[in-house]
Design brief:
Blueprint: E1 2-6, E2 15-20, H1 25-33, E3 40-43, E4 59-62, E5 69-73, E6 78-82, H2 87-94, E7 99-100, H3 112-118, H4 125-128, E8 135-141, E9 147-150, H5 157-163, E10 172-179, E11 181-182, E12 188-195, H6 198-208, E13 214-219, E14 231-238, E15 261-262, H7 274-287, E16 291-297, H8 299-302, E17 309-310, E18 321-329, H9 333-346, E19 353-358, E20 372-380, H10 385-398, E21 402-403, H11 413-419, H12 423-433, H13 442-446
Parallel strand pairs: 2-4, 3-4, 15-17
Antiparallel strand pairs: 1-2, 5-6, 6-10, 7-11, 8-9, 8-10, 12-14, 12-16, 13-14, 13-19, 18-20, 18-21, 19-20
Length: about 450
């Protein structure tokens, strides 16, 4: 056990916790069933942006050592893994078999357990939904010390779905079986287009997304007036062997995802400011093709451009940044536009602005996605940010939307309740399996969960 200062990927709200690295089930069970007064929470690779995997004054269970691949069924196809394995390692092992995860978020540097706890989504939510939809079964260690096997339609489906998106507050996922999908290559065929403003962007996504498996748009939040929301849309599908250049066809499943460098330390001040963010936005828009079809891209180019640079969050300096992600229903285009206009007018600029459309919601009561428009922006922490985010919260609530708990570090209990109308369903399950509140995190205390 070691005492360490932990924070989320955004670097905000750090707190000190006792880190426990259990090597076997007996040690893990002991840590869970004999907690101190501040309780215990599990932690993977620390890629949640806020505070769900830290526990001020309590214990944090580092489960990254629980990373074995237990079984692969190439015919089903499924894979059974320990929950501490990263998506990066899992994909590197599955691709040579011609298998791919049906849902991949914006980074591979998350654990399977974390992907379940946050019920992560990817560029294909409108087609394949969120991660929990593809979990065949999971073994969950309860605060009582019992291990239960859960399936979506088994003896306790309520506990299964409360665990998906439940931010680690129903138990500790030990192992899980995940449904996979067959692929011919590790590449993607991508169409790219630029749009001059926000209205055109929304129209193009609404009218064209159904023709693609994957769809995402970057857009500019620093411009105002006629060019507000100018964007670059990238949409695509998994490439077939015949799509590849002849030189690649003999090794179509190679995992091409190199890391080019690493930010070695936290910068003394944020490198992301009004000047640099506006320059980046202008350059990113200008360098994109006006219209290009059929380009073959690798995993990093299409899925994970930020994984090219390790520890990129250090660029934001000691204050860190807030990634604010919200979703509003399809019909609430006016609310979405008002939110973008508020960000552009605020002076709080973001370089990383991602827009997607979500499909049907998951059965999980705390799962974030719902049919509609979702936007994620990375905003450096500086004076006035709280007021902007409170204003955005009000717009989102009024529109019937919500924020993503895996990205959140400042939402209030009252706001959470208005955003998640099925919160009581989750709390009923949580109190049933953890009546003494053993599982606790900074997020759970902040939100009264």
């Amino acid at each position: 056990m070691t005492r360490s200062i932990l924070s989320g990927w955004g670097g905000t709200s750090p707190s000190a916790s006792d880190i426990v690295r259990p090597t076997d089930l007996a040690t893990l069970r002991s840590a869970l069933t004999t907690p101190g007064p501040r309780g215990v929470i599990a932690r993977g690779l620390g890629r949640s942006y806020g505070d769900p995997a830290q526990n001020a004054g309590g214990s944090v269970l580092d489960l990254t050592g629980w990373d074995a691949i237990l079984d692969v069924d190439v015919h089903a196809p499924t894979v059974r893994v320990q929950a501490g394995i990263s998506l990066d390692r899992l994909l590197r092992a599955m691709l040579p078999l011609g298998l791919w995860l049906p849902v991949v978020p914006g980074t591979r540097q998350v654990t399977v357990g974390g992907a379940i706890a946050a019920d992560v989504h990817g560029k294909n939510h409108h087609v394949h939904g969120s991660f929990g939809r593809h979990v065949v079964s999971m073994d969950l260690l309860l605060p009582s010390g019992d291990v239960v096997s859960l399936t979506p339609e088994g003896d306790d489906p309520d506990l299964f779905w409360a665990t998906c998106g439940g931010m680690g507050l129903t138990g500790i996922v030990l192992a899980t079986t995940i449904r996979l999908q067959p692929v011919e290559t590790s590449s993607f065929v991508v169409d790219t287009e630029r749009t001059p403003d926000l209205a055109t962007l929304l129209e193009r996504l609404a009218s064209g997304d159904d023709a693609y498996t994957y769809s995402v748009a970057w857009f500019d939040t620093s411009t105002r007036g006629p060019s507000l929301g100018r964007s670059v849309i990238t949409r695509g599908r998994s490439a077939r062997v015949e799509d590849l250049d002849p030189s690649r066809r003999s090794h179509p499943l190679d995992f091409a995802a190199p890391q080019r460098g690493r930010v070695p330390f936290i910068l003394p001040t944020s490198a992301v400011n009004r000047l640099s963010a506006r320059a980046f936005n202008a350059l990113w828009y200008a360098k994109a093709p006006r219209h290009r079809t059929g380009e073959v891209q690798d995993i990093t180019q299409f899925f994970h451009p930020l994984d090219v640079v390790g520890d990129w969050n250090r660029l934001y300096g000691p204050r860190g940044f807030c990634q604010y992600q919200f979703v509003v229903p399809d019909a609430e285009v006016a609310a979405f536009t008002s939110a973008v206009e508020a960000i552009a007018a605020s002076g709080h600029v973001s370089s990383l602005n991602v827009l997607k459309r979500f499909g049907p919601a998951s059965p999980a009561p705390l799962s974030f996605p719902m049919p509609g428009w979702t936007l994620a922006v990375d905003l450096p922490v500086r004076p006035g940010l709280d007021a902007l985010l409170d204003h955005l919260d009000a717009l989102v609530v009024e529109a019937g939307g919500r924020v993503y708990l895996a990205k959140d570090s400042r939402t209030s209990p009252a706001t959470l309740r208005r955003m998640y109308p099925r919160l009581d369903e989750f709390l009923t399950v949580r109190r049933r399996v953890d009546p003494h509140g053993v599982l606790r995190s900074d997020l759970s205390r902040r939100l009264d969960l």
